[in-house]
Design a protein that fits this description.
By secondary structure, this protein is mostly helical. 50% of the residues lie in helices and 0% in strands.
Length: 107
């Protein structure tokens, strides 16, 4: 289950635009699914990752793991928050799809 509540849809839609425009899909795949298998599926981000979201996306907390800081590239807190909303929306979609695919007795 995603570690945060479902996000506001308008904010998530803005995040989707930022995600594509900033090139996030190149590494993280469309719909926040891992593009190359070596990079974690963002839909599975845990609570700690979400707690550190701005530091990771804007400030470079995971630069040693290959995640560049996007703050110096012009993204700000508003875009980072929208990106997080988009990732959470996709996480909830995946979670709900997974639940719908289970037989009723397994739910």
């Amino acid at each position: 289950k995603p570690p945060r509540p479902r996000p506001d849809e308008a904010l998530a839609a803005k995040g989707e635009v930022v995600y594509e425009a900033a090139g996030c899909a190149f590494c993280h795949g469309h719909e926040a699914e891992s593009a190359h298998g070596a990079i974690k599926d963002l839909r599975m981000a845990n609570a700690k990752t979400h707690d550190q979201w701005a530091g990771i996306v804007l400030g470079g907390l995971r630069v040693q793991q290959g995640m560049p800081p996007f703050g110096p590239m012009g993204l700000g807190m508003e875009e980072a928050t929208a990106l997080q909303a988009y990732v959470l929306r996709e996480a909830w979609k995946g979670y709900e799809t997974q639940g719908a695919a289970k037989p009723a007795a397994a739910r």
